Structures are given as structure tokens and as C-alpha cells.
TrEMBL record:
Cross-referenced PANTHER family: PROTEASE HTPX, PROTEASE HTPX HOMOLOG
A single GO cellular-component term on record: plasma membrane
Domain Peptidase M48: 76-291
Name assigned to this protein: Protease HtpX homolog
Annotated cofactor note: Binds 1 zinc ion per subunit.
InterPro entries recorded: HtpX_protease (IPR050083), Pept_M48_protease_HtpX (IPR022919), Peptidase_M48 (IPR001915)
Position of the signal peptide: none
Organism encoding this protein: Streptomyces morookaense (Streptoverticillium morookaense)
Transmembrane segments: 12-35, 41-59, 152-177, 189-208
Subcellular location: Cell membrane
One term of GO molecular function: metalloendopeptidase activity
Residues bound to Zn(2+): H142, H146, E217
Enzyme class, first EC level, given as a word: hydrolase
NCBIfam families assigned: PRK02391.1 (NF002669)
Amino acid sequence: MQGTRFAPDRGLATRMVSTMFFIGLLYVVFVGVLMVLLRGAWPMVLVLAGGLFVAQFWFSDRIAAFSMGAREVTPEQAPELHGAVDRLCALADMPKPRVAIADSDVPNAFATGRSRKSSVVCATTGLLRRLEPEELEGVLAHELSHVAHRDVAVMTIASFLGVLAGLITRIGLWGGFRRVGGRDSNTAIVMMLIPLVSAVVYAISFLLTRMLSRYRELSADRSAALLTGRPSALASALTKVTGQMARIPTRDLRQAEPFNAFYFAPAFSKDGLGRLLSSHPTLEQRLEQLGRISAELGRG
């Protein structure tokens, strides 16, 4: 990645550009359709869409960190965590992000932020308690790779359209849009079309973000393994975290599930058709890739 020592990934860059292009195109079409359907309310549509987009872009890192229970910690409060991040940032030649801890027994970590300067890397108390130092560094290198490659910001923006579609649908059905155009048959048709269009937009944006999410996790594993030179430590962390998930109460896993796309490992593993909708590749795929990297480093 330009500006850091993380290994560049052209496949990830291509997928991020493609996802943003199609998401942007979908966004324009969505707003355009709403303006046509709600002719008398087009100023409201533009103000709502623009306002939500700006709010999501500028405050997404704070919203995500707050939602996941992250609290920023100082080097005095978490010396080992800060020490690991300091070593990895020096190794990667990148600015140090803010460091946070989430009080949760679910062993996981995540990174969020619209840019490198505003990024936050967070580990849960459950992760810190269960991993060895080398394993923890592997996980943190994985999260720092997301920051270095800027795919965290892309995921945040890409997931915005689905949120917007749902909000506008609720406002359209229960808010002032129902009063636009009177109570004739055309209004009734419009009220039926709005949730249909929103559902289609949400489904397409959901699939696009899921495809990008699965690839970016493999890319982050690869970059972290090459940076640290210890793919086996990351593989051990993956195996340990995934195995420990089965011991976490289902209620806690359900609370973490909405944030799966940002986590190091998903709260729930899916089989069959569910894998197509999963935010992460399977454990087997991730371990297989790390095994290949280990073999390549051994030959080198």
C-alpha cells in the first residue's frame, strides 16, 4: 500500500473502486427515482439524502465505535495494547491510530474511521484475555491493514445506501410523503413503489458490500502475515477466536452480529447458502491462505 509497508493489493483496490462506482450509480438512480415518484417532495428528498450522507461520512467512526462499546485508552491504561500497536505502526511506517478497548467477553477486534488520521483500532477485553502476545500482534496487524488500505472507509460509505433506503422508506410510509399529491390512486401507487424500490436498492447494496467484505478480510490476513512474517501466529489467533465463539452466550453473539462486517471474525459462522451472504470467508479459506504464505516465506 502506498505510504506504508503493507503489501499492496491491486485486487482489493480494483474491487473497492468497482464497488464505489456501482454503489454511487445506485445511489444516484435511487434518489432520482424518489424525486420522480415524489415530485412535490423532491427538495425534502435532496435535503434528507445529502444530510444523511454528510452525517454518515463525518461521524461514522464515532457512531461505530460508540455502538460497539469502544472507549479510547491511554498508554498508561493499556500499556501492552499500545506497545503492540506502536511496534506494528513502526514496522509498517504508518501513523498510529487511536487505540480503544471494548468491554465485551466476545473475543474480537475491529478498526473504523473515514481516514488514517481519524481511525480507531479496538480490541475487546475477551480478546486481550485469551491471546498470546504474538497472536494479538497478528490480529492488530490485520486491523491496521484495513486502515492502511482504506477499505474501512469504503465499507462505511458503501453500507450507507442500504441505511438510507430503509430510513426514506419509513419516512415515506409514516411521514409527510403520504400527504404529497392527495389521496388519489396515484398516491397509493407511489406508496407501494417506494418500499419496493428501497428493498431492491438495499438488496443490491447488501450483496455488493458482502462481496467486498469477504475479499478484504483475505487481503488483510495476507498483508498482516507478510508484515509480521508470522502467518502461523495469525492462524493460531483465528483458530482460537473462532473456537472460543462457541463458548460465548448466544445473547452476546446476537448483540455483536450487526457489526460482523467490521470484526476480525464473525460472531456466527454460516453454512451453505448463508456463506454467500456472509461478511467473512470461511475459517478454512483463511487458514489455507495463511498456510500458503507460510510455505512461501519458508522457501524464501
